[in-house]
Backbone:
């Protein structure tokens, strides 16, 4: 018997959730092959959180956790692959890693962690029904995200101008692949934060900030791997 | 629902902890080799990796609020993190033997 998936609670999800709802629908369909119901008012339709079985105990939107888990698995696989590739030729990886600046990476780590704190404060604000304060925190989180991107782009320019490209050697292939993949997540996260600032609702802010914290989480593992460990 | 969210004090303490651990990891990586860019001793690699793993765990539990979830979910995420950190450490350990 084929069941349709439904998400959220009618009290929680409102029409402001439509845009982010498309993201949820896409993830839901990809993971379960079950379509989400779209009700007559084109809003995400209703279900109690208990309908999610084991996912019910997770905070926020269960589908976001499906997404977080899958992203963690993908990045974990990349990190382990990098470490074992390095083990095959540590001298080459160490020589190339020497060309990176650990201080720049560390600064970016602190910028992103502070941005994550702002995102956490945004959740608090929207939970207190303070939309204005929530938007201020989301705005600050975005500013810090843009600073992260600015520093990263400067680093890329510096490396490219020194002739260090993804084809230089295995280390730089991984460097550009991993940081580039993460950078794409940051840019996407910034777009989502902007969307939540525009259509500010509890569910939107919860989903978007969860994604933003995932971006944080990946970077705190990526930074020591590429910049510090040798 | 609001009372399940981490409070301001808790968020600030977590942020401070994450910042201090980042600085500690940076300092450990610099202090590990006295003469420039030398391979790090295994104990420094262990500290930096453990610090990174703990930071990721804090982001999961506090920022993502996984601490209010069931023990099964918390255990699953921590196990995934621990396995990743352990496999990375083993790779560095074997690289150090060569």
Residues:
């Amino acid at each position: 018997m084929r069941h349709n998936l439904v998400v959220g609670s009618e009290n929680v999800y409102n029409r402001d959730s439509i845009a982010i709802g498309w993201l949820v629908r896409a993830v839901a369909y990809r993971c379960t092959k079950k379509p989400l119901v779209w009700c007559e008012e084109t809003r995400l339709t209703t279900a109690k959180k208990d309908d999610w079985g084991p996912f019910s105990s997770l905070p926020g939107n269960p589908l976001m956790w499906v997404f977080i888990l899958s992203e963690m698995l993908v990045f974990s696989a990349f990190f382990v692959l990098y470490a074992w590739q390095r083990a095959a030729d540590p001298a080459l990886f160490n020589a190339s890693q020497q060309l990176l600046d650990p201080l720049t990476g560390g600064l970016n780590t602190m910028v992103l962690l502070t941005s994550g704190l702002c995102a956490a404060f945004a959740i608090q604000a929207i939970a207190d029904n303070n939309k204005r304060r929530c938007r201020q925190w989301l705005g600050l989180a975005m500013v810090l995200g843009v600073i992260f991107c600015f520093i990263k782009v400067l680093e890329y320019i510096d490396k490219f101008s020194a002739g260090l490209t993804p084809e230089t050697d295995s280390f730089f292939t991984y460097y550009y692949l991993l940081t580039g993949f993460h950078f794409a997540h940051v840019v996407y996260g910034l777009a989502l934060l902007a969307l939540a600032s525009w259509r500010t609702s509890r569910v939107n802010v919860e989903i978007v900030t969860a994604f933003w914290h995932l971006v944080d989480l990946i970077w705190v593992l990526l930074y020591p791997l590429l910049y510090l460990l040798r | 629902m609001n009372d399940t969210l981490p409070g301001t004090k808790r968020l600030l303490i977590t942020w401070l902890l994450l910042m201090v651990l980042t600085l500690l990891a940076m300092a450990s990586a610099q202090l590990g080799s006295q003469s420039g860019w030398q391979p790090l001793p295994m104990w420094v690699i262990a500290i930096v990796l453990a610090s990174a793993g703990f930071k990721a765990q804090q982001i999961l539990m506090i920022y993502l609020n996984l601490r209010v979830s069931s023990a099964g979910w918390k255990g699953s995420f921590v196990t995934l993190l621990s396995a990743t950190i352990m496999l990375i450490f083993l790779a560095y350990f074997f690289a150090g033997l060569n």
